[in-house]
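Q: My collaborator sent me two sequences in one message, no labels, and asked for predicted structures for both. Can we handle them in order? The first one she listed is below.
A: Yes, handling them in the order given. First sequence, followed by its structure tokens:
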Amino acid sequence: MLFKPLFHLLEDEKALQDELENIEKDIMRKPFQKVAAQYSFGESLIQEGMALLRTLTVDFPITPFDDYHLVKELPVRRFLVTMGAVTMQQGKVDQMHLADDFEGIHIIDPETSSRTKKDVFQEILDLHQFQSTEILVVGDDPDSEIKAAMELGMHYVLFDKVEFNPHLTGLNRVTGFKEVVNYIMEHH
């Protein structure tokens, strides 16, 4: 597993033991810096974690979800916006062979950039002269890309394939790409 070395580092922190399961879930889908702030990691743990993340690479085969092809086949323009260590995020893109599926791939490294997903969404709007209502953001983090989409007046779906957020029923929550396709068909 990609984050195993980081999880081992966290397991040694006694103060985090009660929250370890939640921390590990969050690390798999949110930038380390945000998780560190949320759970009040100490400065030395943050530095060790960041140093470790800089060394992690995705050099093993990974595949997108089985139903990913449904969205890939839609005749729409697609942009990938992701946040995390560039080496790791680019490794994921490469291992899943996603480069040809997206018109643009934007990787924000929170260690080297203060840009947010909202900033990148706005740049995409401006560059391509889209109206915000022409955009559908599909994302798994209600506090990041979904929040940014809402703030910019974009359509959005919270993609919760592994059901991290079953309690968030008020959002446009989906658990598979078939539901994303249905949303697009209904709102197109």
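Q: And the one she listed second?
A: Here it is, processed independently of the first:
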Amino acid sequence: MAGESKKTTNHNQIKRWVEARDGKPASVKGTGDNKNAGLLRFRFENGRQPKAELKDITWDEFFDQFEKNKLQMVYQDKTKTGRKSRFNKLVNREPVKRAGTSSGKSKRSNK
């Protein structure tokens, strides 16, 4: 369905999606070192983020960091109007748990 968000950890699926949109793996300059690619992004031709802020990295570097940080990609194939979408976001695979709870849900008192 157009406008629907999906999520994946499949490397081949991520690579196909990015390359189908003229994208490449990248990291934000100044966020990595020799052992760590840094903050991961995708650089798209004619994209909004200035090229100067991103450093191209290899797919191997990207997926190494992707797995180390236990990320998943949330993405959209098409916009609500049916156009090819570039929407994507790299997020944690596991939901963030709130402090003091085990299920991530607030505990309520029945007083």
